């Protein structure tokens, strides 16, 4: 979008976590990092220099976190960057922040944002870090119950050649979910009117079923399909996200996170872990509303990130041991472990 640029080639770049008793990255420079991480930092510095050259920037660097300090220092001393800063006309402040300093933000569910939900729940487009697969079956006469219908190429979110779709994506990113869904309906109605499709405008709350019924109007009209293909992909992504079981779970996550923030000061860690324990269920005990193993890992990352430094003690050790046992059992009982669980095990 106009305000956000992602660098997916560097998606795996994470600060090293300090090992027990070992030096944290704060004490080491670039030379003290593992070879793979050194190469990734150099690649990031080169990419940023190219980006700043294209924008004609003379930057001033600030850093929060150990790895960020290394990246900022490398960029400051990078020869092509020094030459660029001599001639560039636009000034900018650049702030680097270690990703591990905001894990609570990355795993929390506080955003009332449609773009975030679409990117979280729909399957990734193969070979991409920042785009998703949109099932296009609804635009065809093909009737299939197969969720992963691979006869049709999937749609996606990147629609650079469709001005209406680009405008809609901006509103998915910048508006609250309710307003964004209303924007999706408005764009669909305008597109259908332009193609003289028999659309009945309805007021009130927008439902996924209502959006689906509007999409079906385009189905038998090839010209309308071609003209508005980008827009239809974004609206289909919206429908599939709103109907997705993970979206209804989003509110459960949010409720638990809020409860956690209220109780964390009172009962502290052992109490919170004991609260979590009965919710960890094996595959054959779970209903669709229960948390999966991955959901628990996300919750645990959130809990430990919010709590920060914790006093170790017998009560905490016992509670952690129980949670570990329950999680290991749940992971071992998974009939088809997800790629993430396979990686962890």
TrEMBL record:
An example Gene Ontology biological process: vesicle-mediated transport
Q: Which species does the entry assign this protein to?
A: Tachuris rubrigastra
* UniProt name for this protein: SCFD2 protein
């Amino acid at each position: 979008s106009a305000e956000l640029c992602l660098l997916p080639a560097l998606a795996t770049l994470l600060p090293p976590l300090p090992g027990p008793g070992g030096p944290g990255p704060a004490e080491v420079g670039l030379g003290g990092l593992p070879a793979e991480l050194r190469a990734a930092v150099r690649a990031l510095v080169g990419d940023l220099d190219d980006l700043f050259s294209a924008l004609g920037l003379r930057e001033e660097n600030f850093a929060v976190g150990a790895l960020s300090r290394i990246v900022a220092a490398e960029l400051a001393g990078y020869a092509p960057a020094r030459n660029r800063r001599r001639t560039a006309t636009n000034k900018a402040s650049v702030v680097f922040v270690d990703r591990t300093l905001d894990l609570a933000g990355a795993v929390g569910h506080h955003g009332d944002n449609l773009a975030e939900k679409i990117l979280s729940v729909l399957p990734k487009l193969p070979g991409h870090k920042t785009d998703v697969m949109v099932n296009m079956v609804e635009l065809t006469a093909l009737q299939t119950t197969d969720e992963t219908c691979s006869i049709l190429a999937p749609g996606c979110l990147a629609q650079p050649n469709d001005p209406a779709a680009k405008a809609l994506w901006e509103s998915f990113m910048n508006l609250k979910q309710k307003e964004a869904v209303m924007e999706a309906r408005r764009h669909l109605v305008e597109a259908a009117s332009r193609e003289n499709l028999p659309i009945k405008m309805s007021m009130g709350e927008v439902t996924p079923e209502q959006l689906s019924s509007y999409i079906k109007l385009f189905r038998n009209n090839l010209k309308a399909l071609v003209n508005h293909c980008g827009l239809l992909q974004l609206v289909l992504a919206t429908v599939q996200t709103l109907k997705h079981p993970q979206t209804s779970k989003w509110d459960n996550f949010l409720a638990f996170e809020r409860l956690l923030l209220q109780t964390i000061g009172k009962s502290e860690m052992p109490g919170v872990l004991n609260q979590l324990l009965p919710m960890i269920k094996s595959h054959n005990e779970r209903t669709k509303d229960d948390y999966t193993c991955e959901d628990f890992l996300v919750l645990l990352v959130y809990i430990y990130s919010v709590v920060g430094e914790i006093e170790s003690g017998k009560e905490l050790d016992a509670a952690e041991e129980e949670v570990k046992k329950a999680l290991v059992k749940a992971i071992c009982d998974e009939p088809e472990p997800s790629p993430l669980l396979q990686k962890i095990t």
